[in-house]
Amino acid sequence: MLFWFLSFVIALLHLGMILLLAPWVMGFQKWLEAKIQGLPAVPFWFYRRELYSANIKRLSSFSTTTSFYSPLLPYTGLGAVIIAALLVPTFSVGMVTGSLADLLLIIALLMVVPVVFFLTALRYTSLKSLKLLQTTLVDSLLFLPVLFFIAAIIHFITGSTFLDAVVVFFHQFGELPLMAYSPLLVAACSLFFVVWDMPTFSQKEGIDGFGGSDKGLLLYINDVRFLVWLSLIALFLWPQSLAVLQSGDQDFTIWLRAVPFGLLAWVTKIFVECIILAIMRSLLLFSSGIYRVGIAVILSFLAIILYFAGLSGA
């Protein structure tokens, strides 16, 4: 009983952390890119006004909006990213949501977001916003082969697409050679191209075509989606950094040791990923979307080749 209670508390802590820190991580990403490019930037620790007045506080508009179509559709996207955030392990596995943390389900939830964005744009007369969200939707759909290859390589390696199984597998086989890690590493690198355009979503001109409440909500959903993707990439890059909590761990001190160190590791990984993505974006490499899709597909397919090469070598 104690295990399930502590597991539930950690799940809520993990979800609250994602929802609270998502705008701050996005602000840090933009500030970091501006610094690398030598552009003027507001320090991300002064980003609070934009974060909460433009994003979180506008969530209260749900009760004041009179249109039936307007509130429900964006909130569908918000619900999808919240469920995805709850399912992606950040610093430990073995939570109450572990039995639902299927990579295919998480991908489906995250892919709902661009669809919701596009459908929301249909109720506005702004052609710029419609074109922006149409491009966002098409770009997201183009990355489906990448996500399919990644799910396939995860299934090949661990025999399952559940994220808990990925972490447990690499914990059990800690002495695996580099060839065993390389497919997962290459697959994780391909995901950086999936999140490439998310930091510039709020800076695009078409987003101004939305009403205040919908605009703030869509920006917040985009921030949460960005952090969920980064957490998923972090899990693939460093699967052994997550603590494995089992039903036999009734000692409260085990949880006290696992959670702070796991949280510190997660923050460090997100920080490193933001630096990597900022450098990639600042170099303006692969500026065309179709090139990024092609490189991501090649990397994810290369991961499968490396896996079978490792089998033949073994």
UniProtKB/TrEMBL annotation:
Keyword annotations of the record: Membrane, Transmembrane, Transmembrane helix
UniProt KW Transmembrane helix keyword: yes
Transmembrane regions listed in the UniProt entry: 6-26, 72-91, 103-124, 136-158, 178-196, 217-238, 258-278, 290-309
Protein name: Formate hydrogenlyase subunit 4
